[in-house]
Amino acid sequence: MHIPTAPTTDLEIISFEKLLLDALSPNEDYDISKWLFVPNKYDEFRYILGTRGSNPLICVGINPSTARPDKLDNTLKSVERIAMSNGYDSFIMFNVYAQRATNPKDMDKEINMSLHEQNMAAFEYILKSYKSEKPSVWAAWGNIIEMRQYLPRCVEDMLTLGEKYGARWFSSGAISKKGHPHHPLYLKSTSPLDDFDAYHYIHNILKK
């Protein structure tokens, strides 16, 4: 379990650019040729956790929990299996909001814009790292997006960035009655990816 020690407004939010440089330097805790982990140590927030490859699947959840390199939780293990079964050679776990909390009810009550802006810098870094293919983005947040009013707006900012880089959005598993994409945890490892109209989805969420 990870319970935040304080609201993120009480923490120093170091720029993604600085943390990325640290993450690209050798680390005694894990193999940087296999893993991308930003920040490169267990902290109160996490921007990126994933494996390195030429064709990654970007999975988007709501917020990070306890996973780290070589210590994936069950959700991340499922993400990795589904990425491999759908023809990707790696995966990147990203989140709508970067605050680490096992229980989403423990997330910030109000958005920390500094944290959000750095999280969007991380998302843009992932998107522009694609060289030949359009980025594949798997919406996988389930109904947890209803936990905080600011989360749909965060997704809207992601869609704007995704459009800039020609991102293709997917879901996997059954869509909920409210239109939310399925969470990865209980999906079969062979679950296919389906096209997901994220723009229509978020428009419907925001107009309610």
Structural descriptors:
208 residues, alpha/beta, seven-stranded mixed β-sheet, 5 helices
Structure in words:
The structure is a single chain. This protein is α/β, with parallel strands linked by helices and 208 residues long. It is built from five helices and seven strands. A seven-stranded mixed β-sheet has the order 1-2-4-3-5-6-7, sandwiched between helices. Helix 3 packs parallel to helix 4. The protein is globular, with a radius of gyration of 16 Å. The mean pLDDT is 96.
Question: Can you summarize this structure?
Answer:
Helices cover 28% and strands 14% of the residues. The protein has five helices and seven strands; from the N terminus they run H-E-E-E-H-E-H-E-H-E-E-H. Helix 3 packs parallel to helix 4 (151-164) and helix 4 (151-164) runs antiparallel to helix 5.
Largest sheet: 7 strands, mixed
Structural class: alpha/beta
**Radius of gyration over C-alpha positions, nearest whole angstrom:** 16 Å
The coarse overall form would be globular
What ranges have pLDDT less than 50 throughout 5 or more consecutive residues?
A: none
Nearest-integer average pLDDT: 96
Question: Element order, helices and strands?
Answer: HEEEHEHEHEEH
Number of strands: 7
Can you list the strand order of the major beta sheet? 1-2-4-3-5-6-7
Q: Roughly what percent helix? A: 25-40%
N-C termini distance: 33 Å
Figure out the total of helices.
Answer: 5
Beta-strand portion reads: 5-15%
